UniProtKB/TrEMBL annotation:
It catalyses: L-ribulose 5-phosphate = D-xylulose 5-phosphate. Belongs to the aldolase class II family. AraD/FucA subfamily. It comes from the Bacteria. Gene3D superfamilies: Class II aldolase/adducin N-terminal domain (3.40.225.10). This is L-ribulose-5-phosphate 4-epimerase. Its cofactor is Zn(2+). Residues 22-201 form the Class II aldolase/adducin N-terminal domain. Its EC number is 5.1.3.4. GO terms for biological process: pentose catabolic process. It comes from Sanguibacter gelidistatuariae. Pfam families: Aldolase_II. Keywords: Metal-binding, Zinc. Transmembrane segments: none annotated.
Length: 230
């Protein structure tokens, strides 16, 4: 597929595109490294600061074949602006999130095993671990069932995450989508949601895990978000 390209954009925008292509390409390597994907089943994107554009992977290309140059650039309606291949099949969902959540700079989708197992049951992961309180500020919520092809998935993500502190949503019968201030933060949330989905699942084999009281969740979330690592 060909597109209009970046020639009408300023040198600053083109420079940022080149830099974000490197970032997004490198972050795709984190998905198999953390065992969050099989074959081509997951994608990372990052929004530009200097223009209403984002960078995402081309569809159906294996992670070991991805390069910075092969990353595609889309506008916030999901139209291809620059790149030689079709953008990821989840581009419309990423674009919808960027159009409707101004604070989001990165989006990730995977089909990681444990998080997707919870999604298949449409059950939120209950906040029973301090690392869940830290990262998610409560339960990891479930979003609606939605078919790929229009704005349904994006709307489900936005509607669910707009009423939660969680940067992760388990889209019913599908899998996790995560958001962050940039793509790296969204990848981190994808790693964390898989980890807690796995741990809580294992805990359940031993009995019913104990929910953390809301006051303690709030305290842990505040410390991790505002003090930890600063
Ligand atoms: O969820 C889906 C399809 O149901 C996608 O995540 C694909 O599995 C990955 O697609 P590309 O990013 O390679 O288009």
């Amino acid at each position: 597929m060909t597109a209009a390209g970046l020639s009408t954009y300023s040198a600053d925008v083109q420079a940022e595109v080149a830099q974000v292509r490197e970032v997004v390409s490198a972050l795709h390597a984190e998905l198999p490294r953390w065992e969050l994907v099989v074959w081509t089943a997951g994608n990372v994107s990052q929004r530009l600061k200097s223009a209403d554009l984002f960078v995402i992977k081309p569809s159906g290309v294996t992670y070991d074949e991805l390069t910075a140059e092969s990353m595609v650039v889309c506008d916030l309606d999901g139209n291809l602006v620059d790149g030689t291949r079709n953008p990821s099949s989840d581009t419309a969902a990423h674009a919808y999130v960027y159009r409707n959540m101004d604070h989001v700079g990165g989006v990730v989708h995977t089909h990681s095993t444990y998080a997707t197992a919870w999604a298949a049951r449409a059950e939120p992961v209950p906040c029973v671990l301090t690392m869940m309180a830290d990262e998610f500020g409560g339960d990891v919520p479930v979003g609606p069932f939605a078919l790929i092809g229009d704005d349904s998935i994006g709307k489900g993500i936005v509607d669910t995450l707009s009423t939660s502190r969680s940067p992760a949503v388990l889209m019913r019968n599908h899998g996790p989508f995560t958001i962050g201030k940039d793509a790296k933060s969204a990848v981190k949330a994808a790693v964390m949601v898989e980890e807690v989905a796995r741990t809580v699942h294992i805990s359940r084999q031993l009995g019913e895990p104990l929910r953390i009281p809301q006051e303690q969740i709030d305290s842990l979330y505040d410390r991790y978000q505002n003090v930890y690592g600063k």
